[in-house]
Every structure is written in structure tokens, then in C-alpha cells.
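Please predict the structure of the following assembly.
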Amino acid sequence: MERMQQVVGRARAAFNSGRSRPLEFRIQQLKALERMVQEKEKEILAALHADLHKVGGGPNAYSHEILGVLAELALMKEKLPSWAAPQHVKKNLMTMRDEAYIGYEPLGVVLVIGAWNYPFVLVMQPLIGAIAAGNAVVVKPSEVSENTAQLVAELLPQYLDRELYPVVTGGVPETTELLAQRFDHILYTGNTAVGKIVMAAAAKHLTPVTLELGGKSPCYIDKDCDLAVACRRITWGKYMNCGQTCIAPDYILCDPSIQGKVVENIKATLQEFYGEDVKSSPDYERIINKRHFKRVLGLLEGQKIAHGGEADEASCFIAPTILTDVSPESKVMEEEIFGPVLPIVPVKSVEEAIEFINHREKPLALYVFSNNKQLIKRVISQTSSGGVTGNDVIMHFFLSTLPFGGVGHSGMGAYHGKHSFETFSHRRACLIKDLKMESTNKMRYPPVSQKKV
Amino acid sequence: NPYAGLVSHLRASWLSGKTRPMEYRMAQLEALGRFLDEKKQEILEATDLDMGKPSFEAYFTEILLCKNELNTTLNNLCHWMKDEYVEKNLVLQLDSAFIRKDPYGVVLIMAPWNYPIQLVLVPLIGAIAAGNCVIIKPSEISKNTERLLAETLSCYLDTDCFAVVTGGVQETTRLLENKFDYIFFTGSPRVGRIVMTAAAKHLTPVTLELGGKNPCYVSDTCDLSNVARRVAWGRFFNAGQTCIAPDYLLCTLEMQEKLMPALREAITEFFGSNPKESPDFGRIVGDKQFRRLRALLCSGRVAIGGQTDEAERYIAPTVLADVQPSDPAMQEEIFGPILPIVVVANMDEAIDFINARPRPLAIYAFSCDSKVVNQVLERTSSGGFCGNDTLMHFTLNSLPFGGIGNSGLGKYHGKFTFDTFSHHRGCLHRNMGLEALNTPRYPPYTQQKMGLLTATFEVKRKGTCTLL
């Protein structure tokens, strides 16, 4: 208890000193982060490779974890002055002569809890937003991706203000201790079950939370669509990071008549991406650890394997796998897969697909492929999800002008770009009146008569 | 689970899609407008019975402010509902990117007793505008208004989609066992914690409009009679039972002496020499609250007022001087017509005093010197802030209304209510063609692809010279 209390207490004292508030300070810290990412690129990629077999130096890790972070930093530095400026609002008759505006202020001490699947970016992107908004930030990377956690713990103090932005490492006991402290905002990325624990802990202190959770992101493929293109895009999104992506298309819904063609197209694409022997492709990742390896493999039980299914426990390798004619009641349709297994659930119509989706928990992402624009619009309008990409997968994540977050069991709140800045800011309503001009106030004072009304 | 049936009935209505079309929402909102017009007398009577609310106040806060919110919403709903198109990056130039405002589903609004119609209606207006089904839980303490809402709202709103639930702590606890898609709660921080803990079980997002002790700093350079009037008005409105009332005053000893006659004069001007007889001064809502407030009177010394009448639940407009931070009046949110004055040496001490305490819903600062007002604003944190007046920031619905820390989370009023009850869904609608543009992202990964990817994804720092 002592250690966490001290770390958080120091961060709070540092915040109370006021030094994280001036824009110049925030930009200076963001620039330092930028230097860190540029100077330590090799070390970061090596850690990612050690944790997830992510291709060191390859476009996958580089683009997802490094480029994304650099882009966010550049955006913050450029926009911060305009975002942080007071926003004057429309006044009414009574306030015509007054100053009325919304001031953007830091919340205080923010806690960022990262996840293991994109261990660098899922800690950095929230951190960037929280710093930009003027807060102190306690960073808790996931212990499951231990190499990246270690690296982050080593690097951040070398580049950033040590008291304002401490890194805390450890597992469940340390995180539980951390959650007992009072924070002014908590951003958690992870699963639904732990999300509930985080929110319950936050409730004790009335701490607002942003929960980036998960779920089963459905992918509906319409009969009227360019199957080759659709399947290439889906294959890319499903099997990147060995399926361990919160917004990966979890399962496919399509008419039984195109199921065979879908399988064929995905198989062809897999060949194109990873070659004959997937296991020896330098571009295909591994499952994070034995526990998840066993869990994902277990989902294949009793299923019709149309492609893949090979596994090797020693290296936590599971081949890109496709399951056909999957029953909605089977185990693989109960939990978020988070692995390279793609079930296809046959549905007879888009109406059936919509009903299927609406009877389940709201997902983090929803995908629909069709040449028919109206159909895509209909699916979006009749369902709910954190976000949507039509005719592709994953891509809405990369546009920072779109808020990224879940709804229902897939989460609450959002971030990225300006949405991060707003998530980590308090919008304070300010009305400044003149101490004179009392005559206009007289109409509101007692004693009253009908005339005043 | 006694409410499971009701919740699933509303959820079925929600799934039917009934509440989504704009016409439906407008029709329900217009019906609320008719409720305010046709039941105006009943509203004034019920709030009078509940807490002796003066009809001027009831008209202003329970009818007029609600109609303003209604009209703002009706005038702008079409615009608010539209998809918000966003700026795109290089890769997505040919696609469609927008934020869709989706309803959450079935939402719960829990209201307190002090502004019992307004604190139901203003969130309700936003919830309906955003396309949700709503369960309304008014406070059982303002029992006449509770009955009015339970009996009459069903005559105006679609009962398939909107329901009123009555009851006390037990019923509310059972109600909270159900899964809602959003919970909007106005009340005390203590109950706010209970609500958020219950919400956590279902991962239900919440807005909590709570309270605290709103400090009011009066500097030495100020217009005495204007300050006194504005502070007295804010403090004694609704007999002090206002979440954003100035809870206590901070000023120098000199100022305390000067303010006292000015406050006395303002109180007399407002309520006459015997406020008990004034139709413009309210009563305390219940016996429990009355007794709690009476116990606070032993703080400092009674400089103005102090009279009480238990039978009427009357507490005179009271000002307490020389109150110490350890006195009873400084331990909890007062929520009554008692204004303690705590003496400080100067502005810096006042700011330190404020910052040593939980962040309040509102902070007030009075000074003829705008630098002083700005200093207090900049060096403190609160839900909202009003310089040189009290309460008024609440009435401008282009300003977000909400707390921070112990005083709450989330915000509403005007468009902010609509946004509170909407899920902002990031949507990207891509082109099925132009697949060649996607090639750099696919394996097998090569250095060439990496270069292309960097070139297209990178956000370049503006102003840099790119020669090659």
C-alpha cells in the first residue's frame, strides 16, 4: 500500500505545484516523448518482437506502434494552443454584456492502464492526450507484455518529468493497490470483466473513467460485393497481430451460398500474405502466452475446420484458421476470440444479420461489406457499436478525427486526437459579470409582482 | 426483481426502433411542452406544498427554464441529429468519415427534490431528443410533485417508451439492479457513489450531478450593496436548497463588518422585516432536513436572522459571522438559508482555503478588480464559475453544467444534454474499389512498402522544409 500511495502522492504534489499546466511545459514534454520514440525506435521494436513476435523493423509493428504515436504527437503539438484556448459561447439576452466561455482545464492525476496486444501504442496514445491536457499521469503498462513494460519503465523517466509521469509495473496485486488510490480520471484498455472492477474501484472516489474494452466485432458480407477485395481486407484485419486486435473482425455473417467462395478467397489471400508455410513467414505473429494459446485452441473443439487448425505449443503458434457453418451456441461464439480463428455463421438475409447482432452485446467495431450503399447505411442505422468501418476493417481506428471507443459492454468514453484532449480535460463553464449594471438584475429579486414575470 | 418486466417492456420498444425517427422525438417533446403549459397550476401547487416554493421561483425554475431547454432542443434537434462529417487524412480522402449520434437505449433518470420538475424534465428532454426510452425516478421526498409526475406524465408521453417509477430507498435499490444503457443521477455525493457502483456491474455509463460547498470570495474592492444583493439572492433562493447556492463567504474581517448591514438591507428589501410573512421566501422540505439545519446555527455567531419555527419548517434568512472551519456549518453542504462567513486575511488565503477542500460545483468571486476575479478563477478548480454574481451561469444553456471530483462527472444543458444521452459512433464508409491504394499495408512486408506507408500515414509537422 505504501509504495502506490507514495507514487500517486508525489504525482499529485507535482500536479498541485502547477508546473504541468503551462502550454510551453506540455509541449516540451511532448517533444521529449517524440525524441524518445525516434531515438529508441530499435529498442521499442525489439521489445515488441520479444513480446509478440512482432516483426522487428517490419511495417506492422512500425506502422501500428511507432508511426501512430508519432502522428499523434505531431497533431497534439500543432493543435494544442487552439484546443486549449477558452471557447466563447453564444449568450442570451440576460448575459449579453458578460463574458461567457468554456475553459479547458486539467483534471489532475490521471491513471492509464495499458493492454498487452499493442503494448506500446495503448500506453503512449492515452499518455500523450493526458499530458497535452495538462495532467500528471501514472502509467501502468500490462505485465503480460513484460518486455515492453520494462522498457517503458526504463525510458519514460529518462525523457519526461519523473514526478509527474511515473511508471508503475506489476501484476494484479499491484494494480489492485493502485486502483485503491484516488485519481481524477482512469483510462483502462482491456477486457470487460476487469473493466467492471476498474469502474467499481473508480466509483469509490467518483472518478470518471474511459473504458476501452472489447467484444465480438461482427463482419457482415453481402452477396452483392466484390468478394476478392472484401476477403483481402478482412484477412488483413483478422490475422494481423495473430488476431489479437480489439477491433479485429471477430466473426463473419454471410449467406450460405457464398460461404465457400469466402473461404476460397481468404485462403488465396493468406497464401499471398504469408506464403506456403505460414510458420516460417517473418510477417506472422504468435499468441502472447501459453494460457491464451490453450484458450484459443480450445475454441476449435467440435468445429468444421475449412482451413488451418495447425498449432505448435512450444512457439505458441496457431495457423490462420477458418471455421464454417458455425453454430451461434458454440463456445467460439461465446467469447471474444482474440486469436487467428475466423468463424463463419451463415445467415439468410441482412435482416437476420441485424437481428443476430442486436441480440448480442454491443461490439467495439462493426463491419459491413456491400456494393449497395443503402444496405450499408441500413446496417449502421439499425445496429449499435463503438465504431464502424464499411467496406473495410480496422481503418476507422486510424482517423483521429473520429472518436475511438466502445458502447455497452465494449466500453464507455472515447479518445484519439482532439477526443483525447477533451477526455482528459475538465470543461469549466465561466460567466464573468460586471459588478455594476445592477438595474438589469432587479427583475429577478423579490419582492415580486406579476409585472416582473 | 420487481422492475424487470417494466425494463424489458421498454427495451422491447427500444429494439422496435420506435424512438429513432426525428418526428417521433419531436412529437414527444411537443407533448412535454403541453404538459408544462396545461399543468402549470398543478406544478406551482405541488412545489408549494412540497417546500413552500414561492410561485415566482417555481415559475422561473420549473416552467420557464424547462421551456427554454425544450425550445432550444426543438429548434436545433434536426441539426444535432445529423451525422457530423470529420476532416480526413490522406489515405481516406475518397471515403466518407462521420460521427453518428446513436441513442443508448433504455436510460434511467434519477431526480432530487429541490427543483423536482426541472431536474426531471431537463435531462428527460435531452434523453428523448437523443432517441432513448426513459425510466424516470423522481424523489419521494417531494411527494406532491412525485405524485403529479406519476399521474400525469403518462397522459402526455408514449407509455411504451417512457415510464415513471415511484418509491423510496428500497425501491430505488431494486431498480438499480437492472441493466440500463445510461444513468443520469442528480443528488448527493454519497448516493452518487452507490449509483456508480451499481452502474459498474453492468458497465453502464453515468452522469452524476452532485454537490459540495460552493465558496464565495468577496474582495475588499467591491460595490457593497450589489454584492450583498446578488449573494443574498443566490443564497436564499428556494430557502437555500440549491446545489449551486453560494454555501459560505470568504472575506476579510473588515469586509465582514461592512457587508453585514448591506446584507441586512438586501434581506429586508427582498423579504420585508418579517420574512416569515413574505410569500417570496420558501420553507425547508422536511422535518429531518429542518432539524439538521437548525443544528448548524450554533456555528460562529448569528449576526442576521437565526429564528426558526418547526411547525412551519421555517428558518429565517440567516448570516453567521466569525465562523471557524471546525464549526458544524463548515462540515457539510448547508442546503438551507444559512450563510456562514469565514474570515481570511487576503485573497491568497481564500484561494488556499478553497483548494484545501473537495472541488465544488461552483465557485463565486466578487471584485471590482477583474484581475482578482481572474486570479480566483485560474488558481482554483470547480464545476463552473461565476464572477460577480451567483447562480447565473446555470441559466445560459450554451455553457455546460456539471461538477468535477466530488461534485460530479459529466455535464448537460442545451446541446450538452443531447450529447450526454448519445453514443458518438465513429463511422468510416470506404470505397470498395481502388484496392491498389491498400497494397502498402499488406504482407509480405518490404522496405518499399514501409516507405510508402510512412509517406501516406505520417502527419508532417507544418513549416518543415521538404526538399526531396
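Chain B has a mean pLDDT of 95. Chain B has two domains: 3-211+410-423, 215-406.
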